[in-house]
Amino acid sequence: MAGSTSGETAGASGRVGVVLVSHSAQVADSVAALAAALAGVPDAPVVGAGGLPDGELGTSADLITEAAHRVDGGAGVALLVDLGSAVLTVKALLAEGDELPEPARLVNAPLVEGAIAAVVAAAGGGDLDAVAAAAEEAYDYRKV
Amino acid sequence: MVSRELTGDDGRDGPGAGPGPGPAESGTEGGLDGEVFVRWLRLAADEVERAADRLTELDSAIGDADHGGNMRRGFQAVREGLAEDGPRSPGAVLTTAGRTLVSTVGGASGPLYGTLLRRAGKALGDAERVPGAELARALRAGVDAVAQLGGAAPGDKTMLDALVPAVDALEKSGGTDFGAARTAAEEGAAATEPLRARKGRASYLGERSIGHRDPGATSSALLIAALDRAVYGDTEGDD
C-alpha cells in the first residue's frame, strides 16, 4: 500500500500530518505545495487528497484515507476540507472509527489560509491541538 | 432480546432453501432475513440505474449535475459487492453496502446514504431475521445520523424530506406497512418542489432553488420504493 512506504519516512518525524481535501486534485495539490513552500522546510508534512481517482471533480474517501496514512507521522492527522461532500466524507470516515489514523481531526478552517497556518505549525513540531488551533485562527485574519 | 427471540432457531436453512412461507406472505411477520436486504439493494440499484438520467437532470437545475452518475456508480459497486459474498445477516448487508457507498459515490450522497445504511445496519446487529418494527427503529437511527451529519432538518429541501415521513409512516404501522412508507417518501419528495434549499450547493441559489424537486429526496424515495418491493417479494428485473 502507498501508505506504508512513505509512512515509514513520516513515522520517524513524529510530526502532525496535514491532509487537504478539495473537490479538485489541482486545488488540493497546489495548496499543499503553497503551504509546504511557506513552511520553509524541505519535507513539510502535508498532502493533497483532491478529486476522484480518475481525476474528475469530487470527493474520494479512498484517496483521503490513503493520504492520511501516507502523511501520518505518529502524532495525529489534521484534515482541512473545502465544502459539501468533502466535509461530509471526512465526517463519515471519522464516524467509522477505523479508517483514518489515530488521532485524526477535521479542522474547522478556511482551506488556503488554514492550510498554511496548519503546515507551518506542524512543520515546527506543534501537536495536533496546536496545529488545529493555528488553522482555526485563520478565520480571524481580517483582510479589510 | 426481542430480535433474538424472534430469530428463533430455524435459521439453519441454506442460502437458497426457502421452506417457509413465500416472501409476500412472510412480509414482516417472521422477520426479514438477509435475502430481503440483498434484494432491497439490488432493486435499489435497478431503480437508480433506471432513474439516473432524471436524477442528473433534477440535479442540473439546482445542483452540480452529478447525482445520477454518482448514485449509479455507488449502487453498481454495492451490487457487485453483494454478488461476491455469500448470504449474510441483514445488519451486515447494510453496513457493507453503506461502507461501499461512502467510498465509491464521490459526492455528498456517498457519505449521506452510506451513513444511513451503516447506522441502520449497526442498529440491527447480527440477528439473522429482523422484525419490521425493528427495521423501522434501525432506519430511524440511520435517518437521525444523516440529519446530524448534514446538519439538516425536514423542510430544508434534502433527502430528509422523503426519508423522515417514510420512517414516520413505517413506525406508525408498527413496521408492517412498507407501502405507506413508500407513498410517504414519494409525497415527501414531490413536496420539496416549492421549498427553498437550505443545505448544499442548491442553498447558494436562494429563491431560485424554488420550483425544482430535490434530487436527493427523489433518490431517497426510490430507495424506499425498492424496500417496499423487496419486502413483498419482488425480484430484480420485474417492472
From TrEMBL, chain A:
Keyword Transit peptide listed: no
GO CC, one annotated term: membrane
Domain PTS EIIA type-4 stretches: 15-144
GO MF entries: phosphoenolpyruvate-glycerone phosphotransferase activity
PROSITE patterns associated with the record: PTS_EIIA_TYPE_4 (PS51096)
Pfam family of the protein (one): EIIA-man
UniProt GO BP: glycerol catabolic process; phosphoenolpyruvate-dependent sugar phosphotransferase system
Keywords: Transferase
Protein name: PTS fructose transporter subunit IIA
Automatic annotation (TrEMBL), chain B:
Keyword Transmembrane: no
A single Gene Ontology CC term: cytosol
Annotated region (Disordered), positions in chain: 1-31
Pfam families membership: Dak2
UniProt cross-references to SMART domains, sorted A to Z: Dak2
Domain DhaL: residue ranges: 35-229
Record's compositionally biased regions (Basic and acidic residues): 1-13
Keywords: Kinase, Transferase
Any one GO molecular-function label of the UniProt entry: glycerone kinase activity
PROSITE patterns tied to this protein: DHAL
An individual GO BP term: glycerol catabolic process
Keyword Kinase among UniProt keywords: yes
Superkingdom of this protein's organism: Bacteria
Matching NCBIfam families: dha_L_ycgS
Protein name per the record: Dihydroxyacetone kinase subunit L
Source organism of the structure: Streptomyces cacaoi
